[in-house]
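Schema walk-through. Below, the input block comes first and the output block second. Nothing else is stored per chain. Lengths vary across the set, and this one has 412 residues.
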Amino acid sequence: MALYAWRGRNNRGEAVNGQLEAMTEGGVADQLLSIGVSPVHIALAEAKEEKTSGSALAWLNRKPVVVEDLLIFSRQMYTLNKAGVPILRAFAGLEASATKPAMVDMLKDIRASLDQGRELSASLARHSALFGGFYISMIRVGEMTGRLTEVFLRLTEHMEFERDVRERIKQAVRYPMFVMIAMVIAIVILNIFVIPVFAKVFAGFNTQLPLITRGLLAFSSWMIAWWPLLLALTVGAVVAVRAYLRTPEGRYRWDSRKLKLPIVGDIILKATLARFARSFALSSQSGVPLVQALTVVAQTVDNAFIGSRIEQMRDGIERGESISRCAAATGVFTPVVLQMINVGEETGELDNLLFEIAAMYERDTDYNIKGLSASIEPILLAVIGVLVLLLALGVFLPLWNMGQAAMGRGGG
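--- output ---
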């Protein structure tokens, strides 16, 4: 693409000028006409020397496009489409109003792709890592059915729900995570700096120490002697686990284990099924064929285990089985949900009942998240209490025994 300088007149006859990127002068003219400007002169812009000073620092400080940016983009596209603004003019306006450089570059690339005659879904597919398969598929369906405005609205609601669930879970686990990190730091400091001081004191007792004290001293000595190896093993274990979780088998096994974790497993399952129900309902309501919808939704739930069960449903539907029977065969839905799917399939109101299922799972998820901190705090308090008790007994029992012995000798 090349940068063109242009001059023209707007709808009020005023002289305006600027620069635009396009493949040809005709592309610049089309962009100008789409925003109500009649071009008078279009020519290649003179190349300017870019300043390299500070470019490395600017690149390091460059913030990537995040989910919140895509949510705002979807809401703005819904508003612009509802107002009847042409797609090229809409992207030109969004690009001009964007403040994040990464977002500007993405919008510029999408607009250039649209200017070359590609569809919006194909242009968004150039950034599939950001938008994801579900988003792109929904846009493609909206283009085919002429319901792009409604699709943008549904996508906005869907992304808001997922963001709210993530934020509530983060808020619920933030306090327990801080407590656990503080406990680990405290244990390291005690074993490296505090307990060795008491070890020197206990060495002058010339008597057998209690079992708890000997255990604390042995663990502290082991940590001081082997801390480089312990640190290397910890880092190696983290790297190995992360590499294993990137493999299909590792992710499948971990996603399956997550659903069986105490306290949080049920929350993860309900949140995942709520995402499935809402995504499936949105796809079906937009006119996506069932098989294609389930294929996309299986990639949207962000859980390999649940995704494999959804693909199992898809394979059953391809063989001609009913949705309710395929859902029952997965083994992840409750009887109430299976009954609602069966009723929706019989009455032709599957979309509405799927939204009801999503709302039900969302309420259960919200209720469980609110009680998550209350469920974890007693466990953390019990663990902290045990650690403090062991430390107190290990440190003060020898001092207590020495005091008792001194009092006995003094009284004799």
